[in-house]
Amino acid sequence: MATFMRLGFKSAALSLERNAAVFSNSSVQNYVKLIHTKVSCNGKVCYLQTFQDQRDLDVDRSGMMRRYSKQHGRPERDRRKNYSDSDSDSDTECKGYDRSEFWRRKMRTVHNILDVNKDGLISFSDFQLLSERFKSLGHLDDKQAKEFTDIIKLTWEEQWGPIDPYNFVTVEQYLEDMHHVLNDKTQKKRAHRWLPYLFKAVDKDKSGFISVNEFKLFFKCLGLTNEHAAVAFAVIDINGDGKLSMKEFVNLGKDFFYTEDESRVSKMFWGPLSEI
Rounded to 5 degrees, what are φ and ψ at 152? Predict the structure, then answer.
């Protein structure tokens, strides 16, 4: 019996070694190639362009990886590596479910906007695509464009961890993470520092204010219509002067995330709220 058990363990070990070798020699190489993409814009549309040899990727395995990520996401401990410096008591217990359904609808709305390729998940590639839409408008100078790129990257790493093809954020993970951020003073201050760059990107005439037509550029980059932009602008332009300053724009963008008051006009800032 002891001999039989030893042979069984040895056979299992050899099987595991063979499986590991197969995975490391083929699957990992293919998955790593998914990282090697770049964003291309033609002035109207931005998309991810892969290197030539990516045509040889195993599509079925790639699809399985994304389906697994969509179902399971990245473990909480991996997605919040930079939250350890916070003094908030809510760091380990926030689950996002004690917020109102109205607030949760707003977060689902933003998740849908950030999910540029509409696969139900937010990835760093989505962040890249969204930022390229704004930069391709051509209203940011080189320094501003670089700063914007750096802040987008830093925001992702601080909120969701490493940039790799396994790191996706589901809707429920986004709800939980945003609830955590808004209860953490340190993270709250840094969460939306990219908003001024969105403003500068659509401030076509560099006047320091954006008009309804420039606000339409903002919504276009978010994947929303001119009609939605016109309605939203009419609501959030409280003083009716036909323009928004950067301060107004940034405050509206932040207030959207912070408040659970359904009467606040900031609820229109990111477009129609999700019905799901």
Answer: -60, -45
Measured between alpha carbons, how far is 149 from 29 in angstroms, rounded to an integer? 27
What are 200-214's pLDDT values in tens digits? Answer: 999 999 999 999 999
The alpha carbon torsion through 58, 61, 62, 64 (nearest 10 deg) reads 160
Are the CB atoms for 222 and 270 separated by under 8 Å?
yes
Distance CA 23, CA 108 (A): 36
In tens, the pLDDT along 212-245 reads 999 999 999 999 999 999 999 999 999 999 999 9
58 contact partners, CB below 8 Å, separation of at least 6? 26, 27, 30
Tell me the C-alpha to C-alpha distance, in Å, between residue 37 and each of 21, 49, 134, 173, 274: 26, 6, 19, 25, 30
Query: Structure tokens of 93?
Result: 């217990």
The two structure tokens encoding residue 210: 């954006």
Mean pLDDT of the chain: 75
197: amino acid identity, one letter? Y
DSSP 267: G
Q: Are the beta carbons of 266 and 106 closer than 8 angstroms?
A: no
Distance (Å, whole) CA 143 – CA 140 = 8
**AA letter at 174:** Y
**In which region does residue 242 sit, left (phi positive, over 0), alpha (psi from -120 to 50) or beta (all else)?**
left
Backbone angles phi, psi at 48, to 5 degrees: -90, 125
What does the alpha-carbon distance between residue 165 and residue 148 come to, in Å, rounded to a whole number? 22
Nearest Cα residue to 249 out of 206, 194, 193, 210? 210
pTM: 0.67
Q: In whole angstroms, what is the distance from residue 235 CA to residue 12 CA?
A: 66
